Each structure stands twice: as structure tokens, then as C-alpha cells.
Amino acid sequence: MLVNERKLERGIIVFCNWAVFGIIGLTFLLEGVATDAYLTGLAGIIGIVAGFIGHMVINVVFDQAFSLGETALGLAVFAISILTFVLNWIFVGLSKTDFLIGLTLLSILVTGFFVYLSTRYGIRGAFNRFDVKSQRRSRRKG
Amino acid sequence: MTLSDSMVWLMLFLFLYGIVTLYWARLASGFNRHGSSFFHADGALAPWMTALTMAGASVSGWIVLGFPEMIAVHGFGFAVPGVAGIVLPLTGVLFFKRQWTLARRYGFVSQGEIFRGYYGGHGLAVISVIIAVIFAVGFTGMQLRALSLVLSQLSGGETPASTFVWLIAFFLFAYCVIGGMRVVGYLGSLQAVLLGLAIFGLGIAVVVSTSGFVALNQQLATLAQDDQMLARRLFEVSGVIQFTSGIGADVPVASQWTSVMILSTALALLGFQATPMATQLILSTRNANGFAAGQTWVMAGFFGALVVFAIVLIGAAGIDNASQDNTIQSLLSDLSAKSPWFVAAIAVGLVASVQIIAGLSLVTAAGGLVRDIYIPFFHKGLEASEAVLYARVVIGLLLLTSVLLAILLPVGLSAIGAIALPVAFQLWPALIGVCWFKIISRQAATTGAAIGIFAVLITDSLGANILGFLGLELPWGRWPWTIHSAAWGMFFNLLAVITISAITQGRGHSGQASQMQRFLSSQSNRKGKSRALKPAAWSAVLAWFFLALGPGVVLGNLAFGPAGGGFDAWIVGMPSLWAWTLLFWVLGVFLIWFLSYKLEFATAPVAPIIPIEQAPRLLPQDTKMQGKELVTLVWSIAGLAGVIALTVWIFG
Lengths: 142, 652
Prior knowledge:
- The complex is a heterodimer.
- Chain A is an all-alpha fold.
- Chain A has one domain.
- Chain A is 89% helix and 0% strand.
- By secondary structure, chain B is mainly alpha-helical.
- Among the domains of chain B are: 3-30 and 45-212 and 272-432, Up-down Bundle (Sodium/glucose cotransporter), CATH 1.20.1730; 622-652.
- In chain B, helix 4 (84-106) packs antiparallel against helix 12 (291-320).
- Chain B is globular.
- At the A-B interface, helix 1 of A face helix 1, helix 7 and helix 14 of B.
């Protein structure tokens, strides 16, 4: 089987994974916010976390890492979530439950992000991923 | 939340879904290396993709949108065919592995080619293509219509159903013509997942809206004690058989859902995986490693559970619904006021459920019309790239026909869609001939299928309507003697097959037929142990059919408590017939597992398959377009139209 075709198959599974967990996560999160129900919102957050775990399992099975597009999309969604949360907090005002749901989601995502980096690359390796100067230096040497 | 909010969420979700379909279509088209890739994805689809797509297409929108409504109207008698999750994959267990093995060895890329290669004639290939067209136009159009009505209601009537028909058809057309069979397989996996999620979501919505599963069954128990309900026999199977003249000509006592009606409806379900679409998907698969798992765990296990639990649950809530509106529509309308995002997500799943079967049918029908009819009969030597172009045009024309029928002639479309499954079931003897018993000759299989299809037509509403149009009134209605048209068709089909096979004595095959049968035998190479299990397995299949769907199902009326005895009398806290169906679903999963794995009907072949050098084909090699045949065809159609017009003028 061609490498590209395998990549494509992984892509389909990733879409399937997010079709299930992404939709469950998003809808429960919205439901939790709309009805001021923390547990419903938490179910949504668990859905999103399950989506990430599923994505990482797929990566392991197919022996591949997050693609550039996936990373960019993930970071963009994360940034939009933070922006929406902050803007709503400042201009619209959030109920205590909504605030808690938002805070839980963002803190879990941030924690999850660092846990992922440290388990995949090690603590030093994770730091190096952001150390642009040393990366440039090593590229020049290489 | 107002309905406009739900419309916004609906459009947002549909838009995202549409973008995803086009994205995968573009990627898939890049992998179609040469012309014929469009039709069979170079036989490179991953087995898990095929498993998911096959299961999703088998369930598709017609079970999600149709079953709950039927249960709501006809009661738990119709819940018994809810073991569809077992009946549907049974065909695949028997035929998929063997069709795939033959195709790999002899280079067949469609069901029509398998029939041509084995039987050595064109008749069955033409019938196979006609069936694909019936699915692409009738079955697809019927589901498009039903879905668009649901979506229109969700929009609060702001958007007419026809707009949704065009919208869904546009995306369908776009991704099918761009990516062909490859994108049907890729997207099919995603669509099957969305379909599963939608059914699950609908089930949860019912449980929440009825204050829980126990509360719903308590309401059902109260309803079952109502004298009117008892008279309508909504919680029971209405006897074994009723010798009525059929729907439209006679009124059955209480309900038409007798056990014979249930069994014959299940036979129609056996038709789906015998269709050219199912074969096309199988032939587009990289290897046979996933057939057993797909049929057992994905189809019978996962989707079977969804049907027998969630779909029946939705229908049961519909029985309780005094207004008797369309069950899915009223459920989603109620939900859309509170949680429009949930409804939008479920709606996307419903769209996916229709598109999964529509895409598969369109690509297969277009491929069949071009490769199995147009090229061999009218344009031998057509370049592969040109064949793809023609197929794309045909996809457009088929879809346009389907859309126009859905908008302008919904009743006619329903009649065409209703015969799709029973007509497909008539391919069973031909497939048995190819895969199992050489005794069935070409003449027998072709004549049997033709007679079977004719019998289906005249025992279903389409044939009665056509004959009525010509001024001929049939003395019976739809499904006489409470026997579904699929069973009537198969009765006459088998009669013809057995008689003609006895006369032809195994003659009337292509030169390679014996070689193919020998090759299949060498590939199956069952061990002594599994050979010994064979009689037990077939006894188990017959017993299962008798008790789960046949006359034995009347035992289910009382097995878990009398219908009208109240909630306390229901031993497992649900109607006896539903519990009976659940029990036989569990046993059915075991049965499918046993056939697939233990008898090795669906496991991968024992040895690698080496393609033969000279594939048997019946395509002459001249490259001129056959103008004479085309002229003959045009004159034949004109003559037939003239005869019909004359008949209508005299008798109509």
C-alpha cells in the first residue's frame, strides 16, 4: 500500500473520530452553557478530551504524529474558544456555571497540551519545541 | 429558542458537512490513477471502510426514517423486522467472499461482469444494471423526499422541502462526479459513523422526552390495556397468515402484520446485499480480511443493536403519540425548540444516511449503464477516460430524474422505491448459481430473475398502478394473502429456476464456469471440523428464521407476558414482542458469527489469489460505434411507447 494512501486512511479515521466525539463534545458543551448545567457541560468536555485521546490512539496505530494542518486547526479552535470565552465574560457577562464550564474546558485543554508534549517529547524535548533560537542553531550546524 | 435559531444551526452544520464531503472528494480524485479507477477505486478501499460503508448503506435513511413510522402506525408487529441487523448481513456472509475471490482471480469489476463471465450471457448483466437504476432513482429519491420533509419542518416551514432536495442533491452530485467509487468508500465510513450517532442521539432524545425507559413502557402498558388498541393488535403479531386479497382490494382483520408478512418482508431485506451496489463495494475492497468482522460486529452487532433498541424505541414512542404525526418529525420539532444544536447534529446524520446509499447507487448505476450496457452493445472500444465522462453525465441524469420525481411525483416515486428491495432479492438464485451450485444454468437464472421481477411487479403497487393506467385491473391488491411481493417473486423465480435447471441439466454456462467453481472450492478448503458443523449451522439458521421471523414469532406474543396484562405482567418490563425480538437479535449475532467465522463463509481465502492472465470477457474488440444497434433501440422504444399509448387509448 502506498504511504500516501495510508495517510489518507488515517485522515478518514481522524474525521470519524472527531465526527463522534467532536459532535458529542460540542453539543453537550452548548447544552450545558444554555441550560446552566455544569454536569452537562462537563459531559461535553469529557467528549472533547475523548476526541483528543482517540486522535492520539490513531496516531500511534498509524505511526504518525499530528499533521501541520491538524495542529494549525487545533490551535485556531483553541484561540477562538479563548477569545469567545473572554469576550463573553467582558461584554455579555457569564453566569457562574458558564464561567466554571469555560474555565474547566480551557484549563483541561492547556494541561492536556503540556501533558501531551511532555509524554511525547519528554520535558526537555517539549521545551525545545518552543526554543526557536536553539532550533536555528542546530539547523545551521546540520 | 425560536425555530429560526434551529435553522441557523441546521444550515451551519449542513454547510460544514458539505465542505467536508467536497474536501474528501478532491483528495479522492487525486488517487484515481486511471479511467477505470472511478468505477472501482482500483480495488484499494481498506476493509474497515467497506465494513462501515456496507453497514451504513444497508441501514441508511430508509430504516431510520421509515421503520419508526411503520412501528408507530402498525405496532410491534413491525418491530419484529427490527432484527434487520441480522437479516441484512446474511446475504453478504453467503456471497461476498466468493464474489470477491472470483473477481480477484478473473478480473471482474462489477456484478454484471461476474454474471457475464460465469453464465456467458448478457441477460443477467442487464437485469443487474436495471436494479441499480431502480435504486439510484427510486430508492434514493424516496429517501431524499422523506428527508427533505423532515428538514423543511425543522426550518419551521421557512424553507420548502424542494430546496432541501436540491441542496442535498447538489453536494451528492458534486462529490460523486469528482471522486467516483473511491470517495463513496471514503465518505461512506464517515457517513456511517454519523448515521450511527444520529440513531443513538434519537434514541436518547426519546428516552429523555418520555421521562425514561421505564416510564415509556408504563405508558405503553396502559395503552395496551385499552380496548381499541387490543382490537388493533398493536402489541401482537396478527396470526400466522390472512387470506386477504391484498392492500387496496381487501381489509385485513386487525393488522396486516401476520408472521408470514413479517417473514416475507425479511426476505425483501435479504435483497439489499445481493444488489449490484453491494457487489461493487466489495469488489472495490483491497482484501477480504474485513468481511467477517464487518458483517458480524459492525452490521449485526453495532447497527443491529441500534435498530433493535433505538429505532424500535422511537417507533414505540410514536405509538404513544396521540397526534400520530410523523414520528421523527415531531420528535425533532419538539427538540429543536430546546436544543437546536442537537437537532442540527442529528439532521446531519440523517443527510449522511441518505447520501451513503444514494452515492453508492448512483456510481454503480452509472458505471453499469456505461460499462455493462452502453459499451458492449453500442460503443465497443470506448476509451476508459471517455467512459468516465459518460458515467459522470449519467450520474447527473439519474440524480436529476430522482430529484424531479421527488418533487413532482412523490407517489410514483414511492411505488418505484418500494419494489427496489424485493426486485434485488430476485438475484439470489443467480448468485447462488455463481457462488455455490453449478446446477443453476444461465437460462434458469435469467428466466427465473425475469419471472420473479414480473411477479414482484404485479403483487406490489407499481405493477397494479401501471396495469391500471393501461386499463387492466388486477383482481388482487398489494401483497395478497399478507405475503410481501419479495416472497411472491421468489416463489415464481425458484419455480422457474428449478424447472429449467432440471431440463438443462447443468448445461448453459460460460467455458470457464467449471474452472471457477473448482477455484472457489479450492479456496474455501474447509477443515473437517467445520464441514461437520455444516448441518448444525443450517439447522440453526432455519430454526432462527422460524422463531425470529416465521410462524414461530406468534410465540413472542405471550412469551414475556400478555400484551394487555399491564406493566406488572410484562416479565422484562417491555412488550413481549419487543423482548422476543431483542432475544433473537442476540441469538442472531451469534448465528452470523458462527457462519462467518466457524464455517469460514466470510473469512479471508486460505491462499493468496493469483489473477489469471486471460480474463474471460464477452466484449468484442471492434472499435466502431454500433449505429445499427442504436437505431434498433430507438425504434424499439418508439414502438413500445406507441403500443402503450394505443393500449391506454383503447382501454385506459
